[in-house]
Amino acid sequence: MDLADKIYKWLDDRFKLRELLPPIVKHPAPENVISNPLYCLGGTAFLCFLILVVTGIFLAMYYKPTPEEAYKSVEHIMTEVPFGSLIRSMHHWAANVMIAAVMLHMIRIYFMGAYKKPRELNWVVGIFLLLITTTFGFSGYLLPWDQLAFWATKIGTGIAGSIPVMGEYISLILMGESDIGAETLTRFFALHVLILPATIVALLGLHFMMVRIQGISGRL
Amino acid sequence: MALIEVERPETEVKEERQEPVRVRGLPFFPHFVLREVVVMCIIAGSLVLLASVYPAGLLEPADPFDTPSPIFPEWYFLYVFGFLKFWTWDIGPVPAKIIGVTVPMVLWYGLLMLVPFIDRNPSTDIRKRKVAVTLGVIALLGVLFFTYYSIVFH
Ligand code: HEM
């Protein structure tokens, strides 16, 4: 008996792996889903998300969310931190690819009619995922605190602020004050690294659970 | 490779066939997982390549007193800008600007959320979904058009 078997047996004695694993491991995935690349888009978005989490954690170790320090800390990441430029650029690209993948995933769901009974609610959860993913992008855009970040956010919050009824509150909640400043930066940071990640993890859990329960719609 | 027969849940496609549709399936592990791993390697590799060839940019530090030009948002918000610029007509008492921000954000997302409840046609056959497919193509072209519009006229 080699080491892997021993470990398996040790765990099996305690957690009944023999009963737990087969339903997960042997759970069938339809053949056309394995061979059709259109079905990869959701997984691609998820992989990008994982890469964003890992690179994001590294960025958070060096980033400082204040107007005085933010730009300098990003410059420091880009020029001095070992692999800093690679990590930040991967974060940047994974974010863009994730959004593209989510949109294409949604287009595939739409044109295949995969949102129909019984999957209506998973489509709704999906729309929330789309909203969260783009809000991730919006909040992350401000963090480097360079000219583009500042002014694009100024226009963005301005547009959000002119939505009837809710706009005023949305922009106050986002900015924390009447103009973009220190308060806005810390809010966007909290949104970007705490609130949105927690929300998206919960919704992804729901999304995948529903796919698991309902199976993937697929008769090509 | 062990092919196994899978019964689809009965709730599905009941309208079109009486007996549950049988789909040939492969076990989640290792087949499905293996495919995912291959895809992951391709994507992770492409990301490293993209990141090395086109590093993320950083302009001058933010200056609240100096408006740069042009200002571009992220590409996936461009259509909102485009629509806002495109729509210059008041409707009754509603000013053009309010329509310009409400339609591409509130109405658009509201509409997207209601898609499964608006489209009551049970068929998933693309040939029997002419209305949904036409509307989908129009929506796609619309988003592309307003994205283009925001780049050209800004
Ligand atoms: C963070 C974003 C998202 C991730 C990571 C994700 C992930 C996934 C994955 C891995 C699947 C399995 C099948 C496949 O990959 O095609 C799936 C299925 C599905 N997704 Fe998403 N998704 C996301 C966003 C969305 C959006 C924006 C929508 C639509 C509005 C959506 C609606 C659905 C539906 C209805 C299914 C079931 C499809 C079927 O049974 O064929 N998802 N999702």
Briefly characterize the structure.
The complex is a heterodimer of chains A (220) and B (154). Chain A has helices at residues 3-15, 17-25, 31-35, 41-62, 70-79, 84-112, 120-142, 147-161, 167-175, 182-214; one strand spanning 28-30.
Structure description:
The complex is a heterodimer of chains A (220) and B (154). Chain A has 220 residues and is an all-alpha fold. Chain A is built from 10 helices and 1 strand, in the order ααβαααααααα. Among the domains of chain B are: 27-55; 75-152, no CATH class. Chain B contains 4 helices and 2 strands; from the N terminus they run ββαααα. Chain B has a two-stranded antiparallel sheet with strand order 1-2. The N and C termini of chain B lie far apart (57 Å). The chains are: A mainly alpha (220), B mainly alpha (154). β1 (28-30) of chain A pairs antiparallel with β2 (22-27) of chain B. Residues 39, 41-43, 45-46, 102, 105-106, 109, 114-115, 119, 122-123, 126-127, 129-130, 133, 204, 207, 211, 216-218 of chain A line the site of protoporphyrin IX containing FE (HEM).
